[in-house]
Amino acid sequence: MDLTDRDIKKREELNDVHDQKSYRNPESPYLVGIINDVHQYHRFFVKAALEMKISFDVIDIHRNDWWDKLRAEDYDGFLIWPNGMRESLKSAYDSRVKMIVDYLKKPVYPDYLSIWLYENKIRGLDWLRVNEFPTIPTSVYYSKEEAMQHLKTNQLPVVFKTNLGASGKGVYIVKTESEFRKRVQQCFSVGLKSYGVSPYSESRGYAYIQKFIPGMEEWRMVRIGDAFFGHRKMADENSGKHSGTLLKGWEKPSEELLDLLYEVTERGGFRSMNVDMFRDHEGNIYINELHAVWGQSTEHLMIIDNIPGRYIRENGRWKFEEGSFVKGHSGIARIEYFLKQIGKSEKQLS
Ligand SMILES: Nc1ncnc2c1ncn2[C@@H]1O[C@H](COP(=O)(O)OP(=O)(O)O)[C@@H](O)[C@H]1O
Ligand SMILES: [Mg+2]
Fold first, then answer.
1. 243 and 184, same structural domain?
2. What is the domain extent for residue 93?
3. pTM of the model
4. How far apart are CA 318 and CA 259, in angstroms?
5. 242 and 296: one domain?
6. Which residue puts its alpha carbon closest to atom 19 of ligand 1?
7. Spatial separation of the C-alpha atoms in residues 312 and 119, rounded to whole Å
8. Does residue 165 have its Cβ closer than 6 Å to ligand 1?
C-alpha cells in the first residue's frame, strides 16, 4: 500500500467527526457545503459549523459524482481546505473550484485565487513578482541546459525547492558545484524528492533555484477576514530550517511586516492567507510563500507581552485587540467572516 494511502486511513480514523457528513438546523439561516479533505482538515469547518449551529453537507469533489452533489441543494457557498499532498488531488481543486465559481456561481472560502496559488511555489513566486512584491532572488528553469548555466551569474550556496512540498521536506541547500550539477541532473530526470508528499508526485522537468539567505528571521504573517496576526518561526538547531519545527517566537511583528501583509492581501483579495516572510541581516524583507490554509499548532497566532490578540486596521493604523480569535484552527473565525460576506452580497442583490 502507498504510504500516503495508509496515512489517509490513519487520519480518517483520528477524525472524531468523520461520520458527520451532514447537519440540519431549521433555524440556521445558511446551508453551506464543506468540501471533504483527504487529510481531514475540513473537520475544523465541520466542528465550527456544529458549534455555530450552521447547516451543512460534506461534499467530496474527488468523486465522480462531484458536480451532481454540488448542485443537489441550493448551497449558500462552500468552505474549502485545499490539500497539497499530490498533484493529482490538487488539480481537482484548481479546476473544480473554478467550475463552482464560474458556473455554479456560488461563493467559496478561501477565494479561488488563494486556492489556485496554494502549494505551488512557482505559481506563488510568479504572482508575487507580477505584482511587484519583494521576493528572494529565484530562478525557475524549464530546460536543463539553461539551469546548468545558473552558477555563471549566481553564487553558491543555493536552495533547490520542489514546487509542491511543506515542512522543509522538498528543500535542498546546495553548497558545492558538483552537488549543484547532480541536483540539476536530478530535476530533469527522476525529479527532486519531496519527502512527505506522495512519491508519485510530479517534481521533475523544472528547477527552482533560490539564493541562500544566511541566518535570516522567518515570520508567519496571517490574515483571516479583517484580523491580522504575526509571529516568528524559530529554526531547528540541527537542520537550520524554520518550516515544520512548530517552534514559535512570540515577538511583536513590526509595522513594516504588517503593512506588507496588508498590501499583499489587499492586492489579491485574500481573506484567509498566511504570508511567510524572511528578514535578512540587513533588514531586507522578502516574501517566501503564500498559503491559503496552514497547520496551526497553537491556540493563538499572536502573543505580545504575554497577551494573545489580533491586529485590526483602522484608518490606516494598526490597533491591537486582546482576545482569543483563532480557536479550533481558526474554523469559527473563517466561517464567521464567510457568512458575513454572503449576507452582504444577498443584501446587495435585493
Ligand atoms: N532561500 C533560503 N535561504 C535560507 N534558508 C531557506 C531558504 N528557503 C528556505 N529556507 C529554509 O528552509 C525552510 C523550508 O523552506 P520553505 O520555502 O518554507 O518550504 P516549505 O515550508 O514548503 O518546506 C524555511 O523555513 C527556511 O528555514
Ligand atoms: Mg515554508
1. no
2. 3-109
3. 0.95
4. 9
5. yes
6. 168
7. 27
8. yes
